[in-house]
Amino acid sequence: MDLVVFTSSYTVNGNVFLEEEVLRAQRAFDKIIIVSLDKTPGAKPLTVPENGKLIRPRQNYSLVKRLFRSLTYVFKPRVIKEFFSGIRERGIKQAGKIFFYLISAEDVLMCLKKNEKLWLGDKENTVYYSYWLDAAAFYLCKYLRPQGFTCIAKAHGGDCFYDRGFHEYMVAELKGLNAVCPASAAGRNDILAHYLDKVPELQKKLRTFRLGIKIDRDFKIPAYKSKATKHIVTCSNMVAVKRLDVLVEALKICGEKGLNIKWTHFGSGELEENIKGRAEEMLGEFKNIHFEFMGRTDNSAIRDYYKTQNPDLFINCSKSEGIPVSIMEAMMYGIPVLAGNVGGIGEILDDKSGILLPGMAEAESLASAIEKIFALADSQHEALSRQAREKVLNDFDAEKNYDEFFEFVKETHRKNRD
Question: Global pTM?
Fold first, then answer.
């Protein structure tokens, strides 16, 4: 059986956590085709399996041609219908975003339809899988499902939770796909809460499959010994939903309380200069608060850093999440986690492995929690570390989780062919 995987980006600048899943897939499928929809020619691809190949159909699309084509999308009946449906649902203030999302989705749809000869296979032996519940998933349910192909999608954060914003063609995707697999129980519940009335058969289509990470089985939790300067790490894109500005405010409060802290951040993004400037402005005056921005960093380098530097605390203060791979990797190396109970974070974090704050953490509560965890006795901190690693080994082992998912994919295909 062959597997065709669609993703927004299979490069070091994109969905790096997909690499482990794709490499695991080579054990389960005869051939793997990865369709990466990135538009960055210079971006280095992630590892392609020995029995696979990578197709990047948007590499040669010029901006002028895309802008010209976008004018034709405006008059499509489905675009007009979805646009006004989105406005009724989300409000007139969101019209600009809704229009942009629809035009972007149509551009992806056109590209995939135009190039589908590159991946179309025998419907008896080929499964189509969109890593995101996005425009690629809409392509699958619009063009491939009517031909009898087996089509499945996963859903994570922004493509899953209703409060993350308008999701173009969501109802059509939920109706058309053979199965939709949220990465968290929270994601499944959110989809059901908002779409069950529109898709009566939805409960039968939804199946939760957690993500996973490659386990470093040789790593041993070291005996914890308190340091004069505590080390905090964060790892995320520098975008609004990650709320790094709130962390900066919390560290300012910690600085005023006299706590000695070093903060290391991995990742970059559209707010990078803004966050760096804010940190310089709010934290630069403190001799007891130090910070460094590592930029976009290879996943292997981040793992090595955790393993050798033994940070004291990992923080996530996002507005919305699925179950972050960044938290999984920190916990695997025994780093206690502080995060708000948003999205699926409560499915990986509890008071045995860190501190789970109610809802989105604000600066004051974040600072208090930082102070609390740094006041723990060495034995208590070490217990958090051991529980954190144990949680990941039990629930987020890539080998186990992805093998179960691929068996489900094969079973779904068998049922579709019967």
Answer: 0.90
